[in-house]
Amino acid sequence: MTKILTIVARIEAQEGKTELVKTEMLKLLEPTRKEVGCIQYDLHQDNENPNVFVFHEQWESEEYLQAHLDTPHIINYVKAVDGSIASFVLNRMTKL
């Protein structure tokens, strides 16, 4: 049985950059959900601190995640938010 790779990515926008970061992350949803190997790709915004976002993702394998990280939409996102991210933490997880 293949184990699904779960990703929890926490992104915190710098003060004054929240809308830019949010807009750029929203652009990732549609193309990523169409990628081969993507099971789930959801974006959340913290109710108390709007600078904090979390992606909850599920991928069929690490290889599919790596392919995702090399897509043009991810590369464009990284360029668009350069200098606008206060912190980024990505956790690779396995459901128990």
Automatic annotation (TrEMBL):
Family annotation (PROSITE patterns): ABM
Q: Where is the ABM domain?
A: 5-93
Q: What GO molecular function terms would the record report?
A: catalytic activity
Q: Which UniProt keywords apply?
A: Lipoprotein
Query: SUPFAM superfamilies this protein is in?
Result: Dimeric alpha+beta barrel
Highest rank taxon of the organism: Bacteria
**What Gene3D superfamilies does the record point to?**
3.30.70.100
Protein name from the UniProt record: Lipoprotein
